From TrEMBL:
SUPFAM superfamilies: SIS domain
Family: Belongs to the GPI family.
Any GO molecular function: isomerase activity
Top-level enzyme category: isomerase
Domain of life: Bacteria
Name of the molecule in the record: Glucose-6-phosphate isomerase
Pfam families with a match to the protein in the record: PGI
Reaction it catalyzes: alpha-D-glucose 6-phosphate = beta-D-fructose 6-phosphate
């Protein structure tokens, strides 16, 4: 497996803690994951869960790889216009992409000062735009798409619009699709059965990732290893994680789910996971709140509360054990100051790893609920494995709680009101 999960600290929290309660509740939840796995397996067999069959496919990748945007060298910049599930997964994959040309930009903001540099000036001729919206009706994306079409039309007419823009949305009629049809923009289909926040392995994540130089086959391979293992083994990591989280929520008052990688490259994953978890589990008055953090930065920000505040959190520390290529630290540069001796002859990654282990131990010593996820190398296979892990863990956790992991009914009200405000009818 591309990562190792260690949950020992949740079960052995020292004298004075109700370790046996945790163990009993956890074992019960873990047994329940068996019937959930069976249900998911049946849905997969009936082709009703493409998010879980995608990792085993390849044909769609071949099509993506043949797109002129991928094969050509026409652009210095590619702007990915999408929000939520139509952007966050791609950002996770692109974060480890080795390619620096074309430069990828993610417009998951409506701040005009972020967008303006791409819409005006000399860059426009060498900038492609990838407009992504599953529904094709998200107000933010439609507003941005209109700006893109306007800028390109001014610069090179319909020909520039159809050449420099690509749309990903559901097939059939929807507002973004209609813009594409009107301007002769190529449309790629977003599978209607793949929910946005679960779409990272589909074209939505794959196209930007391939532009960033990511090997999507390896991403899917890592994902498939986790997937297959989860259906084969009761104590597979995603099932253990979901059962443990559920048990802690039920009997130990855990109400927050903290993800803290010790790797800047994994920071986008905390944002991706925040949406995945929040929209999947927060329903009908139930759910736990995702909290994203980054090590070691948040040791100097949130750690005090975590150690000394309420014991209401489940911590996931993701530790990258890879050694970087930084030079060994030369403490002689600081006039042989003894206070720096502990840094002597270490790489910078060793400092980070030491801090991660120290945080894990400090949390455990205080009786906090903590798991460690250790990776040996942050590459495509590992990233695919982690993404699949957290997708499955989320799905299992939702079923354990009795909520539907795949819908998000409550947010629709806000979208409806936004449109009414803009029409002046609210
Ligand atoms: O891809 P789109 O249809 O534009 O949706 C983008 C986002 O919109 C909403 O906020 C949904 O709650 C999200 O789940 C979704 O990812």
């Amino acid at each position: 497996m591309a990562y190792i999960q260690n949950t020992d600290a949740c079960f052995d929290r020292g004298a004075g803690h109700r370790n046996d309660w945790v163990k009993t509740a956890y074992s019960k939840a873990l047994i329940q994951t068996e019937s959930i796995a069976q249900t998911l397996g049946q849905l997969m067999k009936r082709g009703q869960l493409p998010i879980l069959t995608l990792p085993g496919e390849e044909e769609d990748l071949k099509e993506i790889e043949q797109l002129p945007l991928v094969t050509g060298d026409d652009y210095d910049h590619v702007v990915v216009v999408g929000i939520g599930g139509s952007s966050l997964g791609a950002q996770v994959l692109a974060s480890i992409g080795p390619k620096t040309h074309p430069v990828l930009h993610f417009w998951d903001t409506l701040d005009y000062h972020v967008m303006a540099p791409h819409l005006t000036g000399n860059n426009l001729a060498r900038t492609a735009f990838l407009l992504i919206s599953k529904s094709g009706s998200t107000p933010e994306i439609l507003a941005q798409s209109l700006l893109v079409v306007e800028a390109l039309n001014k610069f090179g007419g319909k020909e520039a619009v159809s050449r420099q823009v690509l749309v990903i949305c559901e097939p059939g009629s929807n507002p973004l699709g209609r813009i594409a049809d009107k301007w002769g923009i190529k449309r790629l289909d977003h599978n209607p059965d793949v929910g946005g926040r679960y779409s990272v392995f589909s074209v939505v994540g794959a196209l930007p990732a391939i532009l960033a130089g990511i090997d999507m086959r390896m991403v899917r391979r890592g994902a498939k290893e986790v997937l297959d293992n989860t259906f084969r083994t009761v104590d597979a990591a995603p099932r253990v994680g979901a059962a443990l989280h559920h048990a802690l929520h039920e009997i130990a008052g855990v109400s927050m789910n903290v993800m803290m990688p010790y790797s800047k490259q994994l920071e986008p994953m905390t944002h991706w996971f925040r949406q995945l978890w929040a929209e999947s589990i927060g329903k009908e008055g139930r759910g736990t709140t995702p909290l994203n953090a980054l090590g070691p930065i948040d040791q100097h920000s949130q750690l005090q509360l975590w150690l000394d505040g309420p014991n209401d959190k489940f911590f996931t520390l993701i530790i990258n054990n890879e050694q970087d290529t930084s030079p060994l630290m030369d403490v002689g540069l600081a006039s042989n100051d003894e206070a720096l001796d502990y840094l002597k002859d270490h790489h910078i990654s060793e400092v980070v790893q030491a801090e991660a282990s120290a945080t894990a131990e400090t949390l455990a010593m205080r009786g906090k609920f903590l798991r460690r996820m250790e990776i040996g190398k942050l590459d495509e296979r590992t990233l695919g494995a982690l993404l699949m892990h957290f997708m499955l863990e989320t799905i299992f956790a939702c079923y354990l709680l009795g909520v539907n992991p795949f819908d998000q009914p409550a947010v629709e009200d806000g979208k409806r009101l936004t449109k009414m405000y803009l029409k002046g009818k609210a």
